[in-house]
Every structure is written in C-alpha cells, then in structure tokens.
Amino acid sequence: MNIYPIEAGNFKLDGGAMFGVVPQSLWTRTNPADANNMIDIAARCMLIEDGDKLILVDTGMGNKQSDKFFGYYYQWGDHTIDRSLASHGFNRDDITDVFMTHLHFDHCGGSVQWNKNRTGYEPAFKNARYWSNKEHWQWATQPNRREKASFLSENILPLQESGQLQFITRENGVYQDNNELGFGIFFADGHTEKQMIPHISYKGKTIVFMADLLPTAGHLPIPFVMGYDTRPLLTLDEKELFLNTAADNEYYLWLEHDAHNPIITVKHTEKGVRLKEKFTLNEFFN
Predict the structure, then answer these.
(1) Is the Cα dihedral 81, 5, 59, 180 positive or negative?
(2) Which residues pair with 264 in a beta bridge?
(3) What share of the chain is helix, strand, coil (3-state, %, to 5)?
(4) Which of 149, 214, 236, 243 would suit a FRET pair with 186, their CA atoms being 20 to 30 Å apart?
(5) Cβ neighbours, 10 Å, residue 234
(6) Residue 171 — very low, low, confident or very high, per pLDDT cuts 50/70/90?
(7) According to DSSP H, which parts of 163-205 are helical?
(8) Residue range 110-128, pLDDT digits in tens
C-alpha cells in the first residue's frame, strides 16, 4: 500500500465560526487570525494505492462554483487536485473509488464538474465508484435549515444520476471494518449525520483521516468545537471517545483542514488528551 497527500486547495474561514464559543484569546494561540478574523484552512485529501484500487478520500471544493461563491473563502496558494495527482504520477481517470467522509461542499465539491459544454454536471472521476451512506445521503438531500447552505445539490445529485454512487451500510456500534475498501470506519454524528472517519493500516501504523471530527491541532481540547457542528454536545462525547482511543493506540491523525500541521499524534495528560508530536508530510513519509 502507498498513501499520497492530495492538496485540493487552501482557503480561509472565520476563526470564530471554526471554534464556536471558545474565546478568541484562546484559539488564536494555535490558529492565528488575520485582520479580518480569518484563519488558514487546508483541503488535504488522501490518495490510497492498494493493489488495483486507487481510492481518493474527499475532493475539496472543486472549481465549478461562481466567482462570488469563491470570494467568500479567500482561496490562497496554487494547489489543485489535478496538479497534486500528477505530482504522484496519476490522473483523474486512474481513480477507482472516491470516499466522501460527508457531503459538505468543502469535502465533496470536487467530486462533480461541469460537462464539456457547460450545460450540466457530471462526475469528475468517470471510472470511480463514489461512496457515501444512506443515512447521510438522506440528510444531505433533504437538508435541515442549519446545513442547507453546505449541501449543494449540484455536488450531490449528479452522483446518483450517473449510477456511480454506492452506499456503505452502518452496522452496530460506532466502528466497523469495510472489506470492500480495505479500511475501518468510525461513524460520528455530532458534526453532521453519519460522518465517516477512515482508519487506514499502513506499514504497522494506523492513520486516521480526521475530516471534521478534528479540523486542526488547535481543536484538541474537548470543548473546542466548531460552530458548524449540528450537535455540539454529541461532538464532545465523540471527540473524547476517539481521542482517548487515539492516545491509547498511538494513532497518526491526518488533519484535512490544518494548513500547517498535516499529521499529529496525541498523548494523555492531566488536562486531557493533548498534542504529542507533529509531522510534516516529508518527515512522515520519508
């Protein structure tokens, strides 16, 4: 198995929204804000090469939205999925599976693109199966008013219409192995219904793709929960369960949204689970 980082594009979000009720004086210690209170955010996807499978985990915002839409997110840097795939010797047609942790636009927008004539939409990875789960799909296609702006129909419905959509069935408990894809999945409901957190066994290590369960290293304290979460009290319980397990088992946490700390480990302390080590991508893979 090989794992590659796929940088889908950096952007900025309001620091207050990213940390909810946590005072700015606390969260700016780890996530400094600019003059507009915006903090750096990454869309660091993961590519898993495992035998004849090439699995892309999340796809970032994509590029099909309007200039007005992207104007809200202050994109910076020159990362794109195509450039990142090419740097590892791949292209879109090589992808066999796209695993979507959840269907918020900053995680799945790159899954769909304009068709050739810009008259409609089509899957951006024509040879891939796209993976979600029925409970989250229903949540996204019949959105509550809180999340309606995050679930964009043009990112979602073309996948079903193409026939490329597949559903993972949640069994009993919060964690299960998935033989089809070759990794485990932790289900979390605090941020959104049935978010899926992949656990990948890699060269004797367990790498966990954190999606929005732990957006950045600055979110490690249990009460540091995003304002975007639909059930923040449930997130507290899910974070506590997961982070204790991560510290016990020495997991490597792949931070999708942390622009400056790609991979971290955690440890138990008197104050709870806290940062142990942080790694650049070069340090981890070389």
Answers:
(1) positive
(2) 253, 278
(3) 25, 30, 45
(4) 149
(5) 15
(6) confident
(7) none
(8) 999 999 999 999 999 999 9
